Here is the input.
Amino acid sequence: MNKTITIEKFAATDLAELRKELKQSGLDSWQAAELISAFLSGRGYGVASNDLRSATTRIDTFACSIQHMQEELEKVAFFM
Here is the structure.
């Protein structure tokens, strides 16, 4: 029996706000990873730090679509 864990779809407005904050804050990749970690933990998810740093580099904060952000967050978030 193969169980697939699904992650919620984050609200587009929440993702847009996160993208805006990442874009305007001038954070380095380490700080951006911390911000994304706080975003996820505020919604009840944990994240593996190494995976998050990799995902952060894949999220192009200037051209990243909401769908792409959702997909990247799904890859690194785990339910706590």
Remarks:
- Helices lie at 12-25, 29-41, 49-58, 66-76.
